[in-house]
Design brief:
Elements: E1 2-6, E2 11-12, H1 14-29, E3 33-37, E4 41-42, H2 48-51, E5 67-72, E6 89-94, H3 100-107, E7 111-113, H4 119-129, H5 138-151, H6 162-171, H7 181-195, H8 197-203, E8 206-210, E9 213-219, H9 226-241, E10 247-254, E11 259-264, H10 267-274, H11 290-298
Helix pairs in contact: 1-4, 1-5, 4-5, 5-6, 7-8
């Protein structure tokens, strides 16, 4: 049996990247045959310093009858790669809600879909349960550490849980990052994004169905987002206008400021977002990730 550890088909962010590579490493440490397969492009959250870390993965798969699949940071079936055989999915790890009941019916307790800041936290917990966290390759430990603080907006997102914080505390003695690694990471990601922000949005555009309506949600996580937002409002407006979805917006969490800038496509979208604290031209006074917006929209009833 060979374990194929994979994530979304269209793009791979730091959480999916870390989870796939580290979980495949964990399985190999247990003596199992496992490979990470990342079919989508690596988006700007996988900064050059992260890409430089040793990592074993493929981008294509020649499937065999012995293959089974482990899904990381994804549970929405329509976003799976074409090579994934649903009946051979044996585990699902995710922190995005909406499909947990379906997967629990399919594979029971092997569907680990939980409200948590980062999917990487679930992988850390699995490694701890197997007493193998310290045995993972250091690159896996570093990737998990980075994914947890990155996906929780440096632990400032309201989705951050004590489990995320504890996972970071367990990893901290195992990695040799500089003390300002978080700042280095977010500034490098911002530098990548600002080279071509509209393409960055396209590469990380989340298209999902919420309460029967298709939403398109772009996100740019920046270390300091105010200057970017003020000077690119028209570019962002044009980007949203060209999307086919009626419900669409862009969110720009500004880590250093602790604020979130939001631009909605139209009044239809703004009406929904106002129920979640959105005000035209006024940034939110806290950090809010895309996942939190989706959760809030999902809880609204027509």
């Amino acid at each position: 049996m060979r374990y194929i550890v994979t994530t979304a088909n269209r793009f791979t962010d730091i959480d999916g990247y870390a989870c796939c590579i580290a979980y495949a490493d964990l399985l190999r440490k247990e003596g199992k045959d496992a490979i990470a397969v990342l079919p989508g492009i690596l988006n700007e959250s996988v900064i050059p310093q992260v890409k430089a870390m040793p990592a074993m993965y493929d981008t294509t798969l020649i499937s065999t009858s012995e293959d089974v699949f482990v899904m990381q940071d994804i549970s929405e079936i329509k976003t799976f790669a074409g090579f994934v055989i649903l009946d051979k999915v044996v585990e699902v790890f995710d922190h995005h809600f909406g499909y947990e009941l379906e997967w629990r019916e399919r594979i029971g307790e092997r569907a680990k879909i939980e409200k948590i800041g980062a999917c990487a936290t679930l992988v850390v917990e699995e490694a701890c349960n197997k007493n193998l966290l310290k045995d993972l390759d250091m690159s896996s430990q570093k990737l998990l550490y980075t994914a947890i603080f990155a996906n929780s907006l440096n632990l400032k997102s309201s989705n951050t849980t004590p489990r995320d914080i504890h996972a970071l505390e367990l990893l901290a003695p195992l990695v040799d990052f500089p003390s300002n690694w978080q700042e280095i990471y977010f500034e490098a990601m911002q530098k990548n994004i600002l080279l071509d922000p509209i393409n960055s949005l396209k590469n990380d555009l989340k298209i999902t169905e919420i309460n029967g309506k298709e939403w398109a949600i772009g996100q740019l996580e920046l270390w300091n987002g105010k200057a970017f937002f003020d000077s690119n409002e028209q570019n962002l407006t044009d980007f949203l206008a060209n999307l086919r979805q009626e419900y669409a917006f862009v969110t720009v969490p500004s880590i250093l400021e602790g604020k979130t800038y939001v631009l909605a496509k139209n009044e239809t979208t703004r009406m929904v977002l106002r129920k979640l604290g959105f005000e035209d031209k006024v940034p939110l006074s806290s950090l809010r990730s895309r996942k939190e917006w989706i959760s809030g929209i999902n809880e609204q009833k027509d």
